[in-house]
């Protein structure tokens, strides 16, 4: 099993996260942000990852610190759970529809963090989640996991649908990138390391 447990405590958040990359899609998330927990459930289910999350954050301020810090912790958990990257596909992509919305997500577990965001979320909030924090969440994952992550909203009207498509597309792309391929011996790089 490729698993990781990460804890992070600051003056703004106290987070404990467990991740199993070889799970069955179970999620027990308690961030204090209902819509965000729903998105984490979608991520776990569509990637077939198991996640346990507890976050106590300064939600009396806003959702920014909690969402970004959960991204940092999830990124670190992904990096730890993947391990030495021997035998994995390394790359993953997903073009995913959610009703009227279409989102493309592409990942390279290169060890070189880079994040590209091409999306414009129309609503300021979905539930209590400030939608501008979605970009911060994925950026935090990309840099903490040292992955190359591109997210592009092809089109969409309903902000809930666009964000949900992002989480599901990210899940499917990550699932592909971390999956093993019996044809790959060692690490998929001419350098011999990632």
Keywords:
4-stranded mixed sheet; Ribosomal Protein S5, domain 2; globular; alpha+beta; single chain; 194 residues
Q: Helical segment tally?
A: 4
Q: How many individual domains?
A: 1
Beta-strand content estimate: 25-35%
Q: What is the radius of gyration computed over CA atoms, rounded to a whole number of angstroms?
A: 16 Å
The CATH architecture term is 2-Layer Sandwich
Instruction: Outline the low-pLDDT stretches.
Output: none
What is the distance, rounded to the nearest whole angstrom, between the alpha carbons of the first and last residues?
Answer: 21 Å
Order of helices and strands: EEEHEHEEEEEHEH
Structure summary, number of beta strands: 10
3D architecture notes:
- With 194 residues, the protein is of the alpha+beta class.
- The protein has a single domain (3-178), classed as 2-Layer Sandwich (Ribosomal Protein S5, domain 2).
- It has helices spanning 34-47, 64-82, 132-145, 159-178, and strands at 3-9, 13-20, 27-30, 50-57, 91-98, 101-108, 114-118, 125-126, 129-130, 148-155.
- Strands 1-2-4-3 form a four-stranded mixed sheet, with helices on one face. A four-stranded mixed sheet has the order 5-6-10-7, covered by helices on one side. Strands 8-9 form a two-stranded antiparallel sheet.
- Helix 1 (34-47) links the parallel strand 3 (27-30) and strand 4 (50-57).
- Helix 2 (64-82) packs parallel to helix 3 (132-145).
- The radius of gyration is 16 Å and the shape is globular.
- It starts with a strand and ends in a 16-residue tail after the last helix.
């Amino acid at each position: 099993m490729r698993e990781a447990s990460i804890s992070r405590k600051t003056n703004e958040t106290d987070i404990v996260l467990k991740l199993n990359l070889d799970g069955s899609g179970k999620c027990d998330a308690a961030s204090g942000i209902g819509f965000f927990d729903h998105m984490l459930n979608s991520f776990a289910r569509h990637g077939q990852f198991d996640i346990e999350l507890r976050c106590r954050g300064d939600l009396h301020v806003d959702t920014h610190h909690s969402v970004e810090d959960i991204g940092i912790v999830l990124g670190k958990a992904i990096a730890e759970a993947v391990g030495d990257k021997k035998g994995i596909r390394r790359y993953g992509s997903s073009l995913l529809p959610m009703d009227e919305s279409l989102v493309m997500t592409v990942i390279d577990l290169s060890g070189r963090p880079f994040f590209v965001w091409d999306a414009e979320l129309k609503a300021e909030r979905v539930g209590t989640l400030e939608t501008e924090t979605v970009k911060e969440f994925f950026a935090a994952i990309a840099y903490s996991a040292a992955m190359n992550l591109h997210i592009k909203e092809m089109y969409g009207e309903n902000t809930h649908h666009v964000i949900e498509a992002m989480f599901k597309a990210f899940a499917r792309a990550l699932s592909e990138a971390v999956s093993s391929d019996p044809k790959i011996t060692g690490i998929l790089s001419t350098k011999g390391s990632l």
